[in-house]
Amino acid sequence: MSVEPPADATEYGAVALPEIRVEWPQALAPTLRDSVVDAHSLDREELVAALPGLWRAVDAALDLAGPGSLVVESVRHDAYEGWQVAALPRYDLDGRVRPRERGDGTQHAAPQLRDRRALVGALVDAVAERPCLDLRDALQMLDVFAGTFPPGLDAVCRRLLGHELRHGVAAGLAPLQEALDRRAPGGVSTLCFRESAVGSRKAKGDPATDNEDTAGALTGPSGVLRCAVFDGVTGDGDGSGGTAARAALEQAVRRWRLEEAAVAGDAPPSDHHPAGPGPGSVEAPRSVPRDDPSSAGPGSSAGPGSPVSRPGELIAELDAAVGRATATGSAAAVLATVRPDGTASVVSVGDTEAWLIRPLRAPAGEIPYTAWKLTPAHTGFAERLRVTADAEGEESQLVSFLGGGTARWAHRTFRVAPGDLLLLASDGATEPERDRWFGAVLAELTAQLDASGRPTAPALAAALVQRAEALGGWDNATALVCAVGEAKD
User: Fewest CB within 10 angstroms: 2, 51, 245, 479, which?
Assistant: First the structure.
C-alpha cells in the first residue's frame, strides 16, 4: 500500500503527504464478505457462532499494532487457516511504525471507536444482500433485516459499539457470546401473558373498531405452545382491519387445534382451507423466499406438530381467511411455536416483531439482560434499503401483509432456554425512541422489572403498552410475552 501526492501537486504546498509503503509478510486471506458471499468458506448462518475466534485475533492485532489500526477490510477469513486480521499500524512521518506504550502485558488493548465501527461494518457487509456503505447504513440494515441476518448479530454489533471493552474484545463480548450459544439442558415449559390498549391518538370512542390488534395462544396436551399477534390495517377507520386480524386469529387457532389432534392421533392434519378460496387468497409459495434462510434447516420439516410446519402454507391459509372475511381490511402477523424440547420458530409478514430476551451472565454493574430481534420488516423502506443506502420513505408502509399482499414472508428457527422471554408485538408496542435501539430498551426494562420483584413476563407486557402511550399513543399497542422455564415434572 502506498500514499503518494497527486502527480500535479506543486513542489511546495499547504499539505505535505509522505510516501508510505506497506508490505505484508504473508498472503492475505479473502475479506469477510468475499469469504461468505463468494467463496462460501464460512456459512453466514454460522457466522455468530464462529466469532470468538475473530475476537481473539482482533485482540492480538491490537496488542501488536495498537488501537485505531482496523478498517473494514482488516477482517478476513480463510476456510483452512480461519480468521486473519490485517492491522494497519499508525506511522510517524519518517515512515516507521509509531511505538505504542505497553503496560504490564496482563490486559489487552481496548479498541478505539474506529476499530469498533470497522468490525461492525465488516460483519454486516458479510451478510447483507449488497455491500454496506457506512456505519449508518449498517445499523439501518441490522434493524430492518434482523431475522434474515444470523440471529443475534444485531446484539453483537450493538455491544461492540456500546461497551467499553476495556479488557479487550474477547473479554467484553464473552458474556453475550455465552448467551447466544446457550441451550436448554433439558426440556422447557412456557406461560404466555398479553396486554393490549388503544392508542389515545387513535381512539374514536368506538370499542368495536378502535383497537384492531388481536393476539392469542394455545398450549395443547403435547406441550407445544403456539401464539400469535395480528395487527389490523384499515384505510378509512371502518374497523375492517380488526375484522382481518380476528379472522386471521380464528384461522390460526383452527390450524393449531388440527395440529394438536394430529399429534394425538385423533385426526389427520388438514393441508387445505376449511372453505373454498375467497377474495385475496394466494397460492402457497413454491420456492424458498429470500426471507426464509432456515426453511431447509433443523426443525423446518413438514409434518404434524413440527414447529410452524410449512410456513408458506400457513401464511397462505391466513391470507385466504382474511380475504373471505373482508374485501378492504388487512393485517400484519407474527406467529411463534415453542416445543417442550426447546426448539422454536417464528413466521412473520408485515411489520409486527418478535424478540428474544435472555439473561446475561455479566459482571456487576452491567445490565443483566440482552435481546435480539427475530423478524425483519416488510415495508417500502425495507425494499428500498435492499438496493440502496439512500433509502427514504415511510417505514410503516407495508408491502407484504395478510389480505392479498403476501409476496414476502419470513421464517426463523431457533432455540430457547429457561429464563428466556419471547416477545411478539404489534408495531405500536415497539415504537422506537430517538437514538435508542429497541433491544437496549427491552434489556433495561426487563432488568428494572426483575429487580422490582414483580413477575417479569406479565409486567413486561404491561410496561410495553404503557410505554407506547407515554411516547404519544399514536398506535394501538399489543404485547404478548412468553416466559420460558424449566420443564415441569
Answer: 2
Burial class (CB in 10 A: 0-12, 13-18, 19+), 95: exposed
Measured CA to CA, the distance from residue 298 to residue 414 in angstroms comes to 9
pLDDT in tens, 347-372: 999 999 999 999 999 888 899 999 99
In degrees rounded to 5, what are phi and psi of residue 115? -65, -45
The four Cα atoms 249, 200, 463, 329 give a dihedral, to 10 degrees, of 20
* C-alpha span between 464 and 462 (Å, rounded): 6
Half-sphere exposure of 220 (CA within 13 A, CB side): 19
Residues 373, 352: contact at Cβ < 8 Å?
no
Are the C-beta atoms of 269 and 304 separated by less than 8 Å?
yes
Question: Are the C-beta atoms of residues 194 and 478 closer than 8 Å to each other?
Answer: yes
Domains in the chain (CATH in brackets) are: 32-181 (1.10.510), 188-486 (3.60.40.10)
| Contacts of 314 by beta carbon, 8 Å cutoff, 6+ apart | 255, 308, 335, 347
pLDDT digits (tens, 9 = 90+) for 53-96: 999 999 999 998 889 999 999 999 999 999 999 998 876 655 56
Instruction: Please provide the size of the chain in residues.
Output: 489
Residue 203: how many other CB atoms lie within 10 Å: 14
Distance separating alpha carbons of residues 137 and 234, to the nearest angstrom: 32
Query: Taking the CA of residue 399 as centre, how many other CA atoms within 13 Å lie in the half-sphere pointing to its CB?
Result: 14
Q: Across 117-269, where does the E strand assignment appear?
A: 188-197, 213-219, 225-233
DSSP 174-188: HHHHHHHH---SS-E
Q: Where are the beta strands (DSSP E) in 339-420?
A: 343-349, 353-359, 369-373, 410-415
Q: List, for residues 465-479, the tens digit of each pLDDT value.
A: 999 999 999 899 999
The grid coordinates of residue 145 equal 433485516
pLDDT tens profile 158-185: 999 999 999 999 999 999 999 999 998 8
The cell numbers describing 324, all together, are 373471505
- pLDDT band of residue 231 (cuts 50, 70, 90) is very high
CB 442 within 8 A of CB 423: yes
Cell numbers for 468, please give them.
407506547
Angle at 474 between CA 473 and CA 479, to 5 degrees: 65
